[in-house]
Automatic annotation (TrEMBL):
Residues 10-251 form the ABC transporter domain. Coiled coil: none annotated. One of its GO terms (molecular function) is ATP hydrolysis activity. SMART domains: AAA. This is ABC transporter ATP-binding protein. It comes from the Bacteria. Gene3D superfamilies: P-loop containing nucleotide triphosphate hydrolases. GO terms for biological process: L-amino acid transport. It comes from Pseudaminobacter soli (ex Li et al. 2025). Belongs to the ABC transporter superfamily. CDD domains: ABC_Mj1267_LivG_branched. It holds the Pfam family ABC_tran.
Length: 254
């Protein structure tokens, strides 16, 4: 097997987070591989968002260890982890609605590490970033709306723009929070294609409720329930797991 493709870029061991007496994440092990799409799924309240918050260091783990690209990041601040190559794509709130699509990407390109936007720089100072911004817009299919205000884009394309601003950081690992939330049928196809293409050069870990998208996109799946890993494997393996079927019984598919 190809050692590069199978490289573990992000891993967690024995990850735990307590809130008062409540254990939201309990002894979670996770390995995220370069150039693979890994889905984190599970019923509401399973602990998926808390795992994301722990991996990005928005929350401190109660115990356990997290490694990014072979470095222990367990006690590192979020900005340092972002600079090392871990990016999280939020929902569309992360874009500037009254800047153009191009300027949103150019602003994103001038903030290495992503967390310290330098607002005082005039936009004209961003001119040198235009070629790279155009490349990114082309890669995500937004060239035709490059000069539109972000606020005027459809919901789906706002989400694409938001992902493009995250890709401006050229992350090694991209965490996607429910990329299909609120998407219409057409947009689901567009975003799926985009996720596939961005995963060629980096690891993608996504929380997603839409199980047909998970089945279609994921190379590997971790199923959580009540804070713990219930099952892990490829889609056919976890879909055939009796414990997973029971966990999902009565739960509506996205
Ligand atoms: N800051 C907090 N304080 C107390 N409890 C919390 C906190 N954050 C999360 N929890 C609890 O931890 C559990 C896991 O929540 P989490 O949001 O991680 O689940 P989830 O799998 O992302 O759920 P959903 O699919 O509904 O988003 C829930 O019971 C939640 O109420």
């Amino acid at each position: 097997m190809d050692s590069i493709d199978l490289r573990v870029v992000l891993s967690a061991r024995g990850l735990r987070r307590d809130f008062g007496g409540f254990v939201a994440v309990n002894d979670v092990d996770l390995d995220v591989h370069h150039a693979r799409i890994h889905a984190l799924i599970g019923p509401n309240g399973a602990g998926k968002t808390t795992v994301f918050n722990l991996l990005t260091k928005f929350l401190e783990p109660t115990s356990g260890r997290i490694e990014l690209l072979g470095h222990d990041i367990t006690r590192m601040p979020p900005a340092a982890v972002a600079r090392m190559g871990l990016a999280r794509s939020f929902q569309i709130s992360a874009i500037f609605p009254h800047l153009t699509v191009l300027d949103n990407v150019r602003v994103a390109l001038q903030r290495p590490g992503g967390l310290s936007t330098q607002f005082w720089r005039p936009l004209s100072a961003l001119d040198r970033l235009t070629p790279r911004a155009d490349e990114l817009l082309d890669a995500v299919g937004l060239t035709d709306v490059r000069n539109k205000l972000a606020v005027d884009l459809s919901y789906g394309r706002k989400r694409v723009l938001e992902i493009a601003t995250t890709l401006a950081l050229d992350p090694k690992v991209l965490l996607l929070d429910e990329p299909m939330a609120g998407m219409g049928h057409e947009d689901v196809g567009t975003i799926s294609d985009l996720i596939r293409s961005v995963a060629r050069g980096r690891a993608v870990l996504m929380v997603e409720h839409n199980l047909s998208v998970v089945a279609d996109l994921s190379d590997w799946i971790t199923v959580m329930q009540r804070g713990k890993v219930l099952a892990t494997g490829d889609y056919p393996t976890v879909a055939a797991d009796e414990r997973v079927k029971v966990a999902y019984m009565g739960m509506e598919e996205g």
